[in-house]
Amino acid sequence: MCGIIGIFGENLDRLASANKMLEHRGPDDFGIFIDSKARIGLGHRRLSIIDLSMLGHQPMHSEDGSVVIVFNGEIYNYKELRTKLVSKGVSFRGNSDTEVLVNLYLSEGESFISRLNGIFTFALWDSSKNSLLIARDSFGVKPLYYSNQAGQFAFASEIKALLHLIPAARDLDIAALHRYISFLWCPGKGTPLKNVKKLMPGEAMWVKNGIIERNWNWYKLPVFRGITADLDEKSALINSESLLRQAVQRQMVSDVPVGAFLSGGLDSSSIVSFAREINPNMQCFTIESLGGAEEGVTDDLPYARKVAKHLNVPLEVVSIDANRMAGDLEFMVKQLDEPLADLAPLNVFYISQMSSQLGIKVLLSGTGGDDFFTGYRRHRAIQAERYWRWMPRSIRRGLSTFSRNLNHKKAFNRRLSKLFSGADMEGDSRIIEYFKWIRESDLMSLYTNEARCSVGTELAGAPMLDFLKPFPKSTVGLDRMLALEQRFFLPDHNFTYTDKMSMAMGVEVRVPFLDNDLVDFSARIPLGLKQRGAEGKWVLKKMMEKYLPKDVVYRPKSGFGAPLRRWIRHDLRELLGDLLSTESLRRRGIFEPEAIHRLIKANDSGKVDASYTLLSLLCIEIWCRSYLN
Question: Is 38 helix (H, G, I), strand (E, B) or coil?
């Protein structure tokens, strides 16, 4: 896993210093390629995982020098691909997956991307075409940002390095900030900067003379490829087990030690269960939140310890508290490059820090299980709509109003409010409302007049609405919601923070639930075997009963975060007062100070549940101070 950067145009002299800003992503080696005549430059920072020798050095050139690649990621089927190339007479100098990519491109052209099973971004310079090919993996596990303006194209694994190449691209995108506050992350191509975009999951581009010549989606979700849910219960159970085992053990390929996250939840525990068949002494890591879990949230630690004891694997416990997290909040936002309003990224960082100290450069994660097999509360909620969706809209509107007026200090009331927040909405708008943390009208009331004009009339969920338009109207709500999880929530939130915070310590995180074969198979499992009534991930739970204690398999769902609501009212109060002071808000000019202070008071009283919205505002102010001031 590495960091990549490049530019097609001017500012080639900035490439080396911009590349150094990615040193944390690749502390083991670095390289630069520049062709001044073609006005192209590529940079690479290497975290050595496979083929630790200099034969894996990047930028990597083809044997004839016509092709140069910088690559970030892991290709889990590279050995099979290499074997086929060798059978065609292709020779190799080393044993890296990067060299396989170069030769596969020379053999098959751009279509080779669809052959890859892995997590990646890469940029490939083909001097014979005078063109640059860039691509991102199917579900956006690895990030890539780009800017294209005035005949110049630049890209990087992180925004901070990209801005060093193109320092003028700092115009704030208020409409994108509107999305960050609505969802706590930004769905779609947008970033906080108008001239910086995300390469989307499964997207590729050809760039020529500094201009995007063509871009296309090389990957489509199973639902768009006509894969239908046609399995019976027995087939679903047998094949889910074999394919998850295959995915885990396939992703353990490494020339350095591999460890794992272990929260004690079903997903991470399942990953460790199969991983220990290869490495019985796999080092695992979990978090202890000092001061206890938030009301309504199950504490992970006892379950993590129980699983570690049951599987007989070593477990490192990393202790955190509010003071430590508050002290690291500014670092978190800077490292994320985006104002994601979630404290879970710090948990990833602390575990990665401990992992790095122990010499473990690769960690397995259970991320993705909920997004393909169900498991979130919103999945239960959308299934429960059949009990009230038939009601007249006027009554549904009353349900929404009633639930909003409950005291939100109680977890049950907060969940009831979330359940009916979009009850008066129709179709896909109601589905998207489950992802939001604040209603559109309430959020608009927080802005200054100028900011409100910049947001305009486009809804925060517009990219998600556009994505769902091609779906057949007959597709049920849960299927549509799972597609949104896979297309937006995973890449724009979970994978963004997992990548940035682990790579801050030079640690690679792999996600077996995103294995190509397992993903395609999961699409063939009927919804009734995934979400059975209130029981999410039913097929996985049934399958794991013989490997894990039942009280672990059927434990309550818990997030990978911190007791934020308590901290916003108490432990983080001083930080809140500083960053959201009247002076600070007026200087920034985005939010009305009086409206923000009313929101804080309403959150204190329990009138609204605004802790995550307030965290979002904190993160935006920290981001602006770090990237704009």
Answer: coil
97-127: pLDDT as tens digits: 999 999 999 999 999 999 999 999 999 999 9
Rounded to whole angstroms, the Cα distance separating 350 from 324 reads: 10
Rounded Cα gap, residues 469 and 491, in angstroms = 20
CB-CB neighbours of 577 under 10 Å: 11
d(CA 422, CA 425): 5
CA distance readout (Å), 416 to 403, 413, 597: 6, 5, 25
400: left (phi over 0), alpha (psi -120 to 50) or beta: alpha
> Which H/E stretch holds residue 575?
helix 573-579
Task: Write out the H or E segment, with its range, that includes residue 119.
Answer: strand 118-126
* 240-369+487-553 is classed CATH 3.40.50.620: yes
Compute the distance between CA of residue 368 and CA of residue 406 in angstroms, rounded to an integer.
33
> What pLDDT digit, counting tens, does each position of 405-425 carry?
777 878 778 888 887 788 888
Number of DSSP helices (H) and strands (E) in the chain, helices first: 29, 17
- CA–CA distance, 275 with 252 (Å, rounded to integer): 8
Q: What per-residue confidence (pLDDT) applies to 293?
A: 59
33 strand-pairing partners = 42
- The residues pairing with 34 across neighbouring beta strands, listed in sequence order, are 41
What phi and psi, each to the nearest 5 degrees, are found at residue 36?
-60, -35
Q: Whole-angstrom Cα distance, residue 166 to residue 63?
A: 32
Contact (CB, 8 A) for 582 and 575: no
- The three-point CA angle 526-530-533 to 5° equals 110
**Other CB atoms within 10 Å distance of the CB of residue 405:** 12
Other residues' Cβ atoms within 10 Å of the Cβ of residue 397: 15
Cα 245 from Cα 268, distance rounded (Å): 13
Please say whether the beta carbons of 375 and 557 come within 8 A.
Answer: yes
Q: What is the mean pLDDT of residues 522-531?
A: 94
How much is the average pLDDT of 373-386?
91
φ and ψ of 524, to 5 deg = -90, -5
DSSP code for 293: P
Specify the amino acid at residue 268: S
What is the reported pLDDT for 559? 63
pLDDT > 90 fraction of the chain, expressed in percent and rounded: 76
Mean pLDDT over 442-468 rounds to: 94
Dist CA 8 CA 68 (whole Å): 14
Average pLDDT, the chain: 92
Strands 284-289 and 152-156, by their bridges, are unpaired
Query: Which residue ranges make up each domain of the chain?
Result: 2-219, 240-369+487-553, 563-629
Mean pLDDT of 128-135: 97
For residue 544, what are its two tokens?
Answer: 């794991």
Give me the phi and psi of 212, to 5 degrees please.
-70, 110
CATH code of the domain made up of 2-219: 3.60.20.10
* Amino acid symbol at 312: N
Q: Is 132 helix (H, G, I), strand (E, B) or coil?
A: strand
Instruction: Please give, one letter per residue, the 3-state secondary structure of 318-374.
Output: EEECHHHHHHHHHHHHHHHCCCCCCCHHHHHHHHHHHHHHCCCCEEECCCCHHHHHC
Q: What gap in Å lies between CA 71 and CA 68, rounded to an integer?
A: 10
